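A student in our group prepared the protein record below, which I am reviewing. Here is the record exactly as it was handed to me.
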Amino acid sequence: MHDVQRHRTSAALVGIMVVCLGALGCHSTKPGGHDWAPPPSHFDPKVPPPPPTVPRELTKTTLPEYIIEPPDILLIDAIKVVPRPPYRVETLDVLSIQVLGTLPDHPVEGTYEVQPGGYLDLGPPYGTIKIVGLRLEEAIAAVREHLKQFLQEPEVTMGLVQSAGRQQIAGEHLVGPDGKVTLGSYGKVHVTGLTQQEAKQAIEAHLALYLENPEVAVDVFAYNSKVYYVITQGAGLGDGVIRLPITGNETVLDAVSQINGLDSVSSNRIWVARPAPYGTACHQILPVDWYAVTSRGDTSTNYQLMPGDRVFVAHDRLVAIDTALSKFTAPFDRMFGATLLGTNTVKSIKFFNRFIGLGGGF
């Protein structure tokens, strides 16, 4: 009786599997129940061939001028940073000081940095003097009065070599989510959507509020905002998405090498999906002949990648079908496994009781 029931159940499962296979091969539905067509394959005749002007491995093109966006990192060099008068000495300023009439073995000449706390260290035996917040003329007078404790008629000359503000401007600056770079006490400057030259002009215009004719150099230290994606279809077990920075020289072969080649569920169906602005229908599907690119060195479909491109690696259909069947039959396998385990347990208990009843033993 159990065998007949098992055969009937197996036949029903086979019938359901055949229906599922037919459904997989014919159509699919959206959650709302409407039929929809799957995305075209990379050799679908309905997909228009890419124009010959599309950049490829041996016919690459240069990318447009770089537009700064978050989270790029800018490298800013302060070439000319002269504070507006009247300037007051700040901590970490570098001053050029020369004093005539010093002790023979203890000259005061060279560059001196204003120490934390606003103190200027003139070395032994002259000691330190606090000059932060003073104008240069006032600082000169304060140093002269201080040195009169050790010298008769010292003559002091002083000049600003480097402002502490230079250290806030120069260096690496992250473009924040608000599209601005921070320049320390000089505030923030909006640079998103600008080229390097435009960003330089914007920063100089902002610094002109605090400095005399400032001049800076701007370069992109890290190109973080321009990327492309490699999407690997997972045969029903979830798709993989890898985000990679673009330098302007990558091709499809470079992209696949970044993910260490194709895995066991991938097929040779690969294409590049090139997006278009919202509301337009000019997006492109660029089919890739993987075997030609790899085994024959054919560069005609080894396209140069652009920012925002999606390199799509489709799964192997047989692996996807096997995964779908495994998902469908897994609950029945667990249910039948539990039933079979219970049946075998009951049989074992009956056999053991019969064995004990017959007086069996070890």
Notes: Residues 1-39 have pLDDT under 50 and may be disordered.
